[in-house]
Amino acid sequence: MATYRLLIAAALLLLLKLPLGRSDLVLPPQNLPHLLDVAWAAVGLSLLYLGILRFSTDFADRPLFHWLQVSGDGLIVLLLLHYGGGLAGPFAILPLLLMISTAKLLRGRGAFLFVWLLLILLLLEFFLLGPEHTRLPLGQLLVYLLALVAVAFLADSLVVSLERSNRLTRERDVELGNLNLLNQEIIQQVDSGLLVLDRQNRVVLSNPAGRRLAGYERWQDVPVALDVVQPSLAAALRQGELHENREVSVASEGGERLSLLIRLIALPQGPYRLLILRDATELREREREAQMAALGRLAANIAHEIRNPLSSVRHATDLLREYVQDEPGSLHLFRILERETLRIDRIIDSVLEMARPRPAHPEPIVLHSWLPVLLDQLAADPGLATLRIQLPKTNDGPVVFADPAHLRQVFANLLQNAAQHAGADAAEILVEITWHATGDGTVEIRLRDHGPGIPEESMERIFEPFFTSDARGTGLGLSMVRELLRLNHGTIAARNHREGGAEFVLELPAWDGGKIQ
Predict the structure, then answer these.
(1) What sections of the protein cross the membrane (predicted)?
(2) 107 in helix, strand or coil?
(3) In order of start, what are the domains of the chain with their CATH numbers?
(4) Fewest CB within 10 angstroms: 20, 102, 286, 509, which?
């Protein structure tokens, strides 16, 4: 506002100084010195306003300063009208500009109070000095005054609308800023990895999950080539293999191999593309958890729909035993019926135990003394008769922290799995069990059999519920092993030994005298 005043005052001073300007303005010659004084005063006031705005911003925001500006402008305009020929002179347009600046500075009632004050002063000048001084008929004066009031109303409406728009714009900017911060926080916290690439395949934005999955934790806010971040992803991107969910094996900075599901999305109307990275192993684990939840619901139905009728069948089988003692053919059928009902009962027990496992109650277990006792107990199981189990010959060894009942079930299931897959013609199969402390707070237990090994096509699925390659199995033994180990903060992995046979590697927390390491 102060700048436009200075420009108008300077232009007016220049016109009054130039002979050509004075003739074009048609000014009374006797009033020219007064007009020059008023123009100099306008320049001085404008410079004063600029100084206050520059060096005293607190005072410049106060209503008193606004009233001083309006009063000073009003006085300058009235003096220019008085010495410049009244409303018929060249300065008649200035009150209209004054109304606009007044509406901007004072707004509302204050602005209209000044309007009526200006109108009264103009009418007093007209009636006191006479029409000869103003050189304007009364009718034209009234029309001019109405125009001033109309301009004041319009200016006030425009200022109010402008302020409302500015306020809404500021609020929208704040909302957009908050939404931007929220979006950034969501991106940073989302489980899926996100990498934003530019046209040169440089990573320009990423979230922590994306950097972790891509194996490049050192990335900062500086664009870096995807070949540097993860060459495997860059190669798959160049080959055009990432437009659908595709599983890619990548290496982390520590050398660990990760299996990732990658999807490429081209962002519309922009030079950027989005890579979405998800841990394939984690997704499969979630699928397994969903299967376990479904299995729990299934187990409840099984317990209700099958267990009760099966009890009746078993009771009827026991009664039938009395009538088939002397009939060999019927006795054979009875044995089949008895065997299969027991098998169904074991399947139900396995499903119920798998779906609703007992919480772990861990305690210290000394492996070198606990395992021989367990194996003696399991030796009575006819299903394990073909196994010859070999343990380390030592009186010392690590101590694990686990639930004994859970660990007993783990070894029983692993040994039964070895016996079932030993082959029909195997008279005896050797199973070696070894263990050692890893030094990082865990104990590693290896169980290796000398059987045919695990088919490569089954390797990734052997821990899935109900997956089995043996018609005699339920497909729940190994999945139960993994679930029981998980309850005891342990893990299991399977592989084929380089010298033949299958090998299962278990990791359990080591006992350090009072807590889990």
Answers:
(1) 31-52, 87-106, 111-129, 141-162
(2) coil
(3) 1-168 (no CATH), 191-282 (3.30.450.20), 286-355 (1.10.287.130), 363-509 (3.30.565.10)
(4) 20
Cβ–Cβ under 8 Å, residues 376 and 485: no
CB count in 10 Å sphere of residue 21:
15
What does pTM read for this prediction? 0.47
CA distance 241 to 264: 9
The neighbouring-strand residues paired with 446 are: 434, 505
pLDDT tens-place string over residues 265-303: 877 777 888 888 888 877 777 777 777 677 667 776 776
Distance of alpha carbon 280 from alpha carbon 476, whole angstroms: 23
In the DSSP assignment, the letter for residue 382 is: G
Q: Quick one: how far is CA 36 from the chain centroid?
A: 68
Q: Give the integer Cα–Cα distance in Å for 263 and 248.
A: 10
* Strands 442-449, 429-437: pairing kind: antiparallel
195-227 pLDDT per residue, tens: 888 888 888 888 888 887 877 766 666 778 888
Query: What pLDDT is recorded for position 379?
Result: 83
Kindly report the length of the chain.
517
What's the pLDDT score for residue 517?
43
How high is the pLDDT of residue 515? 44
Residue 314 in contact with residue 345, Cβ under 8 Å? yes
Distances in Å between the Cα of 77 and the Cα atoms of 8, 95, 159, 378 are: 12, 7, 22, 111
Within a 13 Å sphere around the CA of 66, how many CA atoms are in the beta-carbon half?
14
| Predicted local confidence at residue 507, as pLDDT | 93
Q: Is 205 exposed, middle or buried (0-12, 13-18, 19+ CB in 10 A)?
A: middle
